[in-house]
Design a protein that fits this description.
2 helices, Ubiquitin-like (UB roll), 5-stranded mixed sheet, single chain, alpha+beta
Length: 96
């Protein structure tokens, strides 16, 4: 079994674990952290967040962010899997 990575969402320091083959969004929702989302396939950008630390891998070749946005740290948690511990500056959380 692959080691779990620690994912921290700012603001608020919400922490949860994610497996390397699990998207950041799926791990957040499994942990009860209501990260904003809609399409879950990398096209709507509802979950757009900023990667503050760590490394991710995309499960699709062309997620809905440009190369420039990627270079600036933009990340789509719905199609991003962790390759290390990750810190995200998340958009608004949707607490029910």
């Amino acid at each position: 079994m692959s080691p779990l990575h620690t994912i921290r969402l700012e603001p608020g320091a919400h922490c949860f674990s994610a497996a390397p083959d699990q998207t950041l969004l799926a791990a957040a929702l499994q942990a009860g952290v209501p990260l904003r989302s809609a399409c879950r396939n990398g096209s709507c950008r509802a979950c757009l967040s900023q990667l503050q630390a760590g490394e991710v891998h995309y499960v699709i070749d062309w997620p809905g962010i440009s190369r420039d946005e990627r270079a600036e740290g933009a990340v789509l948690p719905c199609v991003a899997q962790p390759r290390s511990d990750v810190v995200l500056q998340a958009g608004r959380l949707v607490w029910g």
